[in-house]
Amino acid sequence: MKTGEKIDFEYKGDSYSGIFIKNDGKITTIKLSNGYNISALNENIKILREYENNYVAQDNIREIKINGKNEVYILTTGGTIGSSVDYRTGAVKPVRDISYIYNFVNNISEFNVKQINVANILSENVNSKYWIEYARRARDVLNKNAGVVIFHGTDTMQHTASALSFMFEKLTGPIILTGSQRSSDRPSSDAFINIEASINFTKSDIGEVGIVMHSDTSDGTVSFHRGVRARKMHTSRRDAFQSIGIRPLATYTDGRVSVNNNAMKRQDENILNDKMDDSVSIIYFYPGMPEEDFINIAANKKAVIIMGTGLGHVSDNIINAIKRLSKDTYFFMTSQCLYGSVNLNVYSTGRYLLDAGVIPLGDMLPETAMVKAMFLLANYPDNLVKLMKSNLRGELNSRRILEW
Amino acid sequence: MKIGLEIHFQLKGVKLFCSCSTEGEKSNYLFKRKMTPTMSEMGHIDRAARYENIRNRDFNYYTSTNSCLVDADEEPPHMPDDSNINTAIIVSMALHCKIVDYVSFMRKIVIDGSNTSGFQRTGIVGLNGYVETSQGRVRISTVTLEEDASRKISESGKNAFYSLDRLGIPLIEISTEPDIKDENHAIETARKIGFIVMSTGKFRGEVDSIRQDVNFSMGYGRVEIKGVSKLSLIKDTIKYEIQRQKSLADISGIIKARGGTEITDFMDITHILKDTDSKIIKAGLNKNKKVFCAKINNARGLLKNGNYRLGRELADVAKNMGIGGMMHSDELPGYGLTDNDVNNINNFMGIENNDAIIMVITDPEIITAFKSELDERLKNLMSMNLAETRAATEDGETRFLRPLSGGERMYPETDIGLIEIPLKRLNSLEGLVPESMEDALNNLKNNYGFSQTEAMGIINNNLYGDFKDYIKVLNEPKIISRIILQKLPEYEKKYNKKLSGDELMEIFTMANENKWGRDSVEKALELYVSGKYPLKILANAEELKPLDAGRLREIIIELMRTQEITEKNLIYLLKNKTKSSFDARDAIKIFENIKNNS
């Protein structure tokens, strides 16, 4: 039997009709005419009649007639926002066509939206090869003078955003990554407004890579977070992404974009350094961490980002390990606190760390630091330490203010 | 005529898909959401969902003390609690349903904002059962376990306000086949089904804990009437619907005989009414709205005339789209419009003989969408295709809500896996399956000596389960029934205090231990409800100490000295005389003894 085939069947002594969905060898699933699925043990179900299969799976492709003046390319890479639910089986699969966005983007007539399928993976499977591919595709779009929006899984969106930020030394327009925390099969999905906001942000004069997601739980305002300062701070909420230590660069509300002065402006060309060195690791220190574990991860890496406690501390045994390894490996210090800057001058532990060769990274986010090291090792290996400590894309703030 | 029921019962305890209590209050934190209709794989948007979308509303939600991220659609659902599934299984068994091997929760798209997710989660637990009634079996198609919707607080323009306190409360939905013969049979069926759910002891039992939907058809398509709040309203609602459909058949016939009807495009007639004295129009114009008017040919005298209410059918569309009032020619002049105003409108619109007009005051953007919905509705009404979802009103009427939803709006809830119901679990629940109402009635009559009326009193007040508990500790059916049906409600009202089942149980246990008669039990109850004694020392209360025979004799003699005492007034007078309890039979014996000896 094929999915979608109409059948008559007997279940526990009663007869029903329905549509066959699947049989996994143990359980048969059938959709009843009232829309409910019945999942029955195979031994309790008897197929009485199969009807000729007249169901043809249809691609959800519709002709798009709107041809606005602003060309926008959506690069789909996977993730919740790039997935749809098979309404019959409930299985999640990639979106083949994003023309559905014409149903809800309010000012869609101003745009001419095109889709490029770049990848279809869950974001936890993204690595530096994908970052490079996404960067090249984004550059090609920007070179056409069009807007670029990347649909991305939210789990590692901050890593991709940081990677793109560093790889592009100059940008002629914003590169926008957006995602959703509720899948787009739901009427309540955050995808709809995130996409609307993303498309509208492509018109702004921002020349940075950003993450565009809900500002709060309401479907009202959407934030443009600087890629190198954004972080997923909640497992499931719509406003999971937060700008850490700075304000979002821009917001979108009801068709209006408002941009901060802090945002870097569009430049006259796109310069892409599309190389990454994977020989970087990130180590999360915890009380009682065995030295061997630390060494096992750090050995043979060109650079290690440590997530220390508080102002940037680790235990004495780890300091000893660092001392031994720091001839061949660069060690950089960030904080598990995420908010605030590390400072290795306050406590003696910090000073020992400095002596051991550890380089403090101020208020740089750990994931950003890791991606930055990967970028610098591949492109500017000779200036690694100096550039790690410099502010290249807004990843490092010298001032932290009480209120913003 | 075909009638089917869908009855929803709230369960108490914990919400279906999170760990919040079913009880709580509205808080002040507010958030706002939009709903976007999503397409099924076939590329279709459910008609009901599309209809809601045209209304382009903002949904505002107040959180509550019993809501969390799951209710706010900010966290995936938790696995449902076993107790809720067990209750659904027990009810299914009592209704002779087949229990599914696996509960498979579905998402049913609902975008009127009542669910923060845009869908309601629902799963079948029982299939194909029946309930016995005086007019034969009424088949049960499904017993489902689902989540209740948010409670609507208010609505103004395009904004709807909801509270999350009700969202997620478990509901057992029982759907019957259209086997119900008439409105009285519907009430009987609902009662019998209700008895079973209430007997599980898990029924929530608050004001809005039962809601009935009535599926009704008299040959013009299935009408689903949502939210009949009271059992007694089922009767009025069905009567109203029969009358409405009959009169629509008449209207459709008359219009056909006149040559059919159509609505013209809406014309902006604001300029004609710019100097009108009509307050309602002036108010609209002050808000920068415009007055639009369309002609409906051959409809004059059918919009509002005796039983003919075509106007209301069309006004429902306006109302659903947030367009306040719709005026029509059968009510004009009215709304403060003068003859002169009406003449000007009629002239401008070119009104002839049987032409009717409708007018709305609204924002211009919505008028095209409104017209297309209106066309669709008029076409359906005139071809007597009356299938639709309607809402029941508090006064037993119904009004148009939205087109019927199709099966297309359901797809699997991917966040919750299949929930297996093994045979072992069914066997363990079998002992908890409640009796049918018939069995309960027979039990009360045959084993406890109640009359039909007394037995029905216990059952209709949802006290059968309690009665069975109390009779275990105090084997006095009449005393118990008088207390739970009369005395307890009376004292609770008098002293404005609610007693829990456990407290009452204590008092009955005490009664058994102290061998109290009826008067003493009732006196003890009143003493306790009034707050005079706590349970611990209630049994030792002065007032409950029975008079010994000697003291009783003294009081009776004293009474006999002052007035004429008979067997009939003795007890009454004694009660007035003393606060202490006494055995009435002893008193009469003593009285006869004194009388015979004197």
Automatic annotation (TrEMBL), chain A:
BP GO terms, sorted: amino acid metabolic process; regulation of translational fidelity; translation
InterPro entries membership: AsnA_fam, Asp/glu_Ase-like_sf, Asparaginase/glutaminase-like, Asparaginase/glutaminase_AS2, Asparaginase_C, GatD, GatD_N_sf, L-asparaginase_C
Domain of life of the organism encoding this protein: Archaea
Presence of keyword Ligase: yes
Family matches, as Gene3D superfamilies: 2.30.30.520, 3.40.50.40, L-asparaginase, N-terminal domain
Every Asparaginase/glutaminase C-terminal domain range: 280-382
Name of a matching Pfam family: Asparaginase
Record-level Gene Ontology MF annotations: asparaginase activity; ATP binding; glutaminyl-tRNA synthase (glutamine-hydrolyzing) activity; transferase activity
UniProt domain L-asparaginase N-terminal: residue ranges: 72-263
HAMAP family in the record: GatD (MF_00586)
Official protein name in the record: Glutamyl-tRNA(Gln) amidotransferase subunit D
Source organism per UniProt: Acidiplasma cupricumulans
Gene name of the record: gatD
TrEMBL record, chain B:
Catalyses which reaction(s): L-glutamyl-tRNA(Gln) + L-glutamine + ATP + H2O = L-glutaminyl-tRNA(Gln) + L-glutamate + ADP + phosphate + H(+)
E.C. no: 6.3.5.-
Keyword ATP-binding: yes
Keywords: ATP-binding, Ligase, Nucleotide-binding, Protein biosynthesis, Transferase
Top enzyme class: ligase
One term under GO cellular component: cytoplasm
Function of the molecule: Allows the formation of correctly charged Gln-tRNA(Gln) through the transamidation of misacylated Glu-tRNA(Gln) in organisms which lack glutaminyl-tRNA synthetase. The reaction takes place in the presence of glutamine and ATP through an activated gamma-phospho-Glu-tRNA(Gln). The GatDE system is specific for glutamate and does not act on aspartate.
PANTHER family: GLUTAMYL-TRNA GLN AMIDOTRANSFERASE SUBUNIT B MITOCHONDRIAL AND PROKARYOTIC PET112-RELATED (PTHR11659), GLUTAMYL-TRNA(GLN) AMIDOTRANSFERASE SUBUNIT E (PTHR11659:SF2)
Protein name: Glutamyl-tRNA(Gln) amidotransferase subunit E
Name of encoding gene: gatE
